[in-house]
Amino acid sequence: MIHLEKRPQPSQVWTVITPVLAVILTMIVGGMMFAALGKPPLEAIRTIFWDPLFHPQFAGYSRPQLLVKAGPLILIAIGLSVGFRAGIWNIGAEGQYIMGAICGAGAGLALYPSESVLLFPMMVIAGALGGWAWSMIPAILKTKFGTNEILVSLMLVYVAESILASVSSGLLRNPDGMGFPGSRNFQQWDAAANRELIANTGMHWGVVFALIAVIAAYVLFARHIRGFQIRLSGEAPRAARFAGVNPNRIVIFCLGTAGALAGLAGLFEVTGPAGQISIDFNSGYGFTAIIVAFLGRLHPVGILLAGLLMALTYIGGELAQLMLGVPGASIQLFQGMLLFFLLATDVFTNYRIRFGQGAA
Amino acid sequence: MKRRTLLASAAALSLAAGSAFAQDKVKAGFIYVGPVGDGGWTYEHDQGRKAVEAELGDAVETVYQESVPEGADAERAITQMALSGADIIFTTSFGYMDPTMNVAAKFPDVKFEHATGFKRADNVSVYSARFYEGRAIQGHIAGKMTKTNKIGYIASFPIPEVIRGINSAYLHAKKVNPDVEFSIVWAYTWFDPAKEADAARALIDNGADVILQHTDSTAPQAAAQEAGNVITFGQASDMAEFGPVPRVSSIIDNWAPYYIDRVKAVMDGTWESTDTWDGISTGMVGIGEISSAVPADVKAEALALKDAIAAGDYHPFTGPINKQDGTPWLAEGETASDGDLLGMNFYIEGLTGDVPN
Amino acid sequence: MDLSSINPVLLVASIMVSATPILLAAIGEMVVERAGVLNLGVEGMMITGAVVGFAVAVNTGNPALGFAVAALASAVLSLSFGVLTQLLLSNQVATGLGLTLVGLGLSSLIGKPYEGMKSPTLPKLDMGFLSDMPVVGRMLFSHDLMVYLSLALVIVVWAVLKYTRIGLILRAVGENHDAAHALGYKVVRIRMMAIFFGGACAGLGGAYLSLVRVPQWTEGMTAGAGWIALAIVVFASWRAGRVAIGAYLFGGVTVLQLNLQAAGAAVPVALLSASPYLMTILVLVFISARGAHGAPASLGRPFHASA
């Protein structure tokens, strides 16, 4: 009989080994899949993992793009990880991301065509507030009535999507857009645009905020009493209560942080890379960020790396489509595999495998 | 470090070999909004790409990327395609307009072709098709063939392109059948088979015996087939597998001649930025075989209408036409300007309901 | 506007067809959640069922076989989720999302050769005098077998959960896995069986989409139906009967909305399409405010015997 024995402490060694192991396993199985599709497996794997970083023709462009793609993922995932550590399962970041974008963009568009230097900071605040307010719905319902936040936050994603569809063909529609749905393009409006801060680095305000969030989360958990309370609430809720931690405050804090960061990510995306509010403005960042948070083991540095790895598979996957003509669906499957292997190998970090007759 | 340069130079080598081989090849890239297997919009663009390969053979290499979301991801996909050495890039959805313009500004030597948009530059052309010409023929057949005098229309989004189609179909149905009524259902999707099927059923349940669709899947065809006694028209692609009934004809997006033409122009060095809005006359809008379910005289009239439009003798929007509220739009004998058509956001007289916004 | 053109008989008939796929998926997911497992991969399992069922039906000409194989295929796929979450103790939320990715990717690779094809579909049952009855005949007794099977399944699930020993054990595992374990029940094995059942149901729901409701195969054709099924389970507060009501309500809102438009009514589409989700939240608040346990107490929590 094989059985698992929980380690007293997560293994440091395995924490490092498992992601590498998972990537290698994904390469092997993914390579077999590409071979089955009649595509050269080694080339496909190289295109996904290597070319975005080192290909002489593409890397100059795709390296900065890694930051553009990873930025919102990391920003949202950091916010989610704060809640996840406390055992608060907000899976509605997609909705908070949408509402942040709508509120931020709406606040800006209300003042069109202002060129004030205060415009963009005002939009940033409105975006964060939009995401925060949307996350307060599950937070208040949970603290007042004990309503399950997983389900409320998920339902609110669909409500937010309906609002998005409605405003992009109604309230926020570009009056000069020939009747097509979609707002004005912020990239053509200097005061409201979230541009690259240093040319050809991909570094925009969203990436800066993501990095700040990583550091802040690190400090929160390593040094701050609130971080300790959060961890305690997640790992030993009863002990937390005895220690005088107010669970309602933790819920409000955690969901609020996640909502505000997701809202910020939405605002930076709509004013930057996406450029405008449109019916399918949201491209699943809120859900992918959940994956990123878990891949990063809810640790700020881990999330930073996981966000970059996820971005790499997106951009490498696009290159593989372009260069080798692999179908888009195979990239989706490839990402799914990577996630499965990472989750599967994670067991070694927290458990020891024992052979022979166990106590269980 | 050494290892890295080794690999990098190996990559450069293989690339150099590749590009030497492709020296006299023109590389044409396509960005698609849906999967190539959607059976409608993207499928037909991909048929155009395949036609380019078939026509120009070894002189051309084509690449494509499917299911590219509009927005940030589109700009990256187009840039990467330009970086990969594409000489001409077709971006085949309205939402790619701003990304295409942005990328085009960075790659002045690459030609860009944006479908259904209105922004141009020295290296950006726009192209679209006058689908409303095909809608006129559908309207004619629909008006003649309906027995309940109720025609169902599955619309996607309230944009000029869709509204033009509704107006054109209604105008020509009304012309041959003054009692005809249109029921319009806004599905708010281009592609959602289950919802499209539900929409078709809702229209049929409400008495419609002709279904026109401006969404891409064949689900409404299947729903009509199941209901029986309902006719439909193929949209974007021929959907011939549902003929002779319910599908009695179709509008086919035929991008192949245009794509071949434009890629050839790049080869010859004669490519210029243009604004193309072609219809039946050049074959960009194809009318699928009118099936045996249509009486011979109606078929003959429909074909005559098609010929008149193709020859330029007849414009589907020829006055007198009033707007829905009764205010005059086109005077007797006047034809609609392209500007009016491109921005069309109103129903014409006789249609009920409001254009949603 | 002339609402008299809406025929209530046809409206109900149409709602029954449109609700069946989400009902099938939701009743399966409800069993999974009652066992204390949150599987967010319903969309991925449904679309796998859709493509497999379609492929089998096209190749064999037998839609019934298509349904059977679709159920099996999705159930087997769901076992990957089971192994990860139950044996390797991975996080259920992340694993479920991964399952969706895998299902969507896999299905479109399998489905490539079947695009644009037509398949044999299920015949409408002829239930003799029942089908010939005025009004109710067309409304209730003129559907295909799966519509009735889905409703029968609801009753079976309800009865099993309420009256049988296995139902009791399943609920015990979902409410308190540690206690259930202490009583000697095989928590992991029971959960694996629940996950398998949930996968099979989702597969049937997907196959119903591709074989009856649409019927054809196109990439991404479930278009979010799996997520709606998840919402229905919550709306139903984990009760079998209410799952059926929820599915008919959710399916009904879409169909009704389209019918109102077809009849010429100006409909606030965005508000209507958001309304089922808002209702679900209200229901959740209502049951939690009453202090009743809404969700199974162990929902989403990992179980490890020695923990």
Which terms would index this structure?
heterotrimer, B: 357 residues, alpha/beta, Rossmann fold, 6-stranded parallel beta sheet, 6-stranded mixed beta sheet, 41% helix, disordered N terminus, C: 307 residues, mainly alpha
Can you describe this structure?
The complex is a heterotrimer of chains A (360), B (357) and C (307). Chain A has a domain at 71-311. Chain A is built from 15 helices and 2 strands. Chain A has helices spanning 12-36, 41-49, 51-54, 59-85, 93-109, 119-145, 149-168, 205-223, 225-235, 237-242, 247-271, 285-295, 300-324, 328-345, 347-350; strands at residues 2-6, 351-355. The mean pLDDT of chain A is 88. Chain B has 2 domains: 26-129, Response regulator (Rossmann fold, 3-Layer(aba) Sandwich); 132-253 and 285-342, Response regulator (Rossmann fold), CATH 3.40.50. Chain B has helices at residues 2-21, 41-56, 72-83, 97-106, 131-145, 160-176, 193-205, 219-227, 256-268, 296-311, 338-342; strands spanning 26-31, 60-65, 88-91, 111-115, 124-129, 150-155, 181-186, 210-213, 231-236, 247-253, 275-278, 285-288, 321-322, 328-330. Residues 1-22 of chain B have low confidence and may be disordered. Chain C has helices at 8-34, 42-60, 63-87, 92-111, 129-132, 136-140, 145-163, 165-175, 177-182, 187-213, 225-235, 240-262, 269-289. Chains A and C meet through strand 1, helix 6, helix 7, helix 12 and helix 14 of A and helix 3, helix 4, helix 11 and helix 13 of C.
Kindly state the percentage of residues in helix of chain A: 55-70%
Query: What oligomeric state do the depicted chains represent?
Result: heterotrimer
Low-confidence stretches of chain C: none
- Tell me, rounded to a whole number, the average pLDDT of chain C: 87
Radius of gyration from the alpha-carbon trace of chain A, in angstroms = 22 Å
The class by helix and strand makeup of chain A works out as: mainly alpha
CATH topology of chain C: ABC transporter involved in vitamin B12 uptake, BtuC
Give me the number of helical elements of chain C.
13
Order of helices and strands of chain A: EHHHHHHHHHHHHHHHE
Computed Rg of chain C: 20 Å
Proper CATH architecture of chain C: Orthogonal Bundle
What fraction of residues of chain C sit in β-strands?
Answer: under 5%
